[in-house]
Design brief:
mainly alpha, protease, 13 helices, CAAX prenyl protease
């Protein structure tokens, strides 16, 4: 007797829907808490807390029912769509599909996964090269950071870490949102650092800005960027390998009601059968990403930017109206970056160990 793939996938989707709904309810209860977490007492004003709390609750209540209803309806629609496929539109969809990236899937043979991964690998390198230089400037204005004390401090920090800084830019992120950030890009000895203008505006002093840069340089020094890139390449290869297995599985197609194995249907079936693995992988990547964030914070602290980083994180939290109270289960499952209260708690714990 063939394994009931479709029933297993539908059952898993229902379980995940119930689990994520439970997490949403836990998060909603956390957001409703009327008091600051102990870590933020005396750090965040009551006025800022109430404003952030009201914003988070209004945003969540407005999206909660709509999001869950849409999710269920969309998944049901996808499954119902299977029954509406006939031979004529199957051929049309398959031909359209073959015109895209998956053009190799009747030519790839046993090496299909390698060909597809190779294509995506080259594409990712090309995009990493041309996006910040040719594409990003189409949407934002990048200007060199003016000479001054801030530039000197950043250059001194980069030099002390042997970071090959070639250019230092400010991007007009404030034209789109109040979100603050800093990032770096470039290969080998040709690195660039980009500061959001909102970061400069929102931080109290240069030390807080440099502390944020120290955190980002921590990701570079600890090879987080390289590890993440390698992990993505491995997962991409495994994903394409999984697709080839699905495409060649007669039992899997029959479980979904198909006697033939058209390419397009194989892709759709793969997208559904891989859902359980995707959830596990996503959760695992979140845990790794959160660990990287804590490590980068600790790196900045070792450079004596602990106090400045703490102050900068608090300031950015206030300006972005991010939630102050978060449920730990919800946070671990959904957030690739730990919330402020967890980051400050980790910094405080490191302080206690040093005493």
């Amino acid at each position: 007797m063939a394994f009931p793939y479709m029933e297993a996938v539908v059952g898993f989707m229902i379980l995940m829907y119930l689990f994520e709904t439970y997490l949403d309810l836990r998060q909603h209860a956390a957001l409703k808490l009327p008091t600051l977490p102990k870590t933020l007492e005396g750090v965040i004003s009551q006025e800022k807390f109430e404003k952030s709390r009201a914003y988070s609750l209004d945003k969540r209540l407005g999206n909660f029912v709509l999001w869950h209803t849409t999710l269920v309806l969309e998944e049901v629609r996808k499954f119902l769509a299977f029954s509406g496929l006939n031979e004529e539109n199957e051929i049309l969809h398959t031909l359209s599909f073959l015109a895209g990236v998956m053009i190799w899937s009747q030519k790839g043979g046993p090496y299909l996964a390698i060909y597809l991964w190779g294509f995506m690998f080259v594409l990712s390198l090309v995009m990493m090269t041309i996006y910040p230089i040719l594409i990003a400037p189409l949407f934002n204005k990048f200007t060199p950071l003016p000479d001054g004390e801030l530039r000197q401090k950043i250059e001194k920090l980069a030099s002390s870490l042997k970071f090959p800084l070639k250019k230092l830019f400010v991007v007009d992120g404030s034209t789109r949102s109040s979100h603050s950030n800093a990032y770096m890009y470039g290969f080998f000895k040709n690195k660039r650092i980009v500061l959001y203008d909102t970061l400069i505006q929102q931080c109290k002093n240069d030390e807080e800005i440099v502390a944020v840069i120290a955190h980002e340089l921590g990701h570079w020094k600890l090879n987080h960027t390289m590890y993440s890139f390698i992990a993505v390449q491995i997962l991409t290869f495994l994903q394409f390998g999984g697709y080839t297995l699905v495409r060649n599985s007669t039992d899997l197609f029959r479980s979904f009601g198909f006697d033939t194995q058209p390419v397009l249907i194989g892709l759709i079936i793969f997208q559904h059968t891989v859902i359980p693995i995707q959830h596990l992988v996503s959760f695992g990547l979140n845990l790794v990403s959160r660990s990287f964030e804590f490590q980068a914070d600790a790196f900045a602290k070792k450079l004596d930017y602990g106090s400045a980083l703490r102050a900068g994180l608090v300031k950015l939290q206030e300006e972005n109206l991010s939630a102050m109270n978060t449920d730990p289960w919800y946070s671990a499952y959904h957030y690739s970056h730990p919330p402020l209260v967890e980051r400050l708690a980790a910094l405080d714990e490191a302080d206690k160990k040093e005493e």
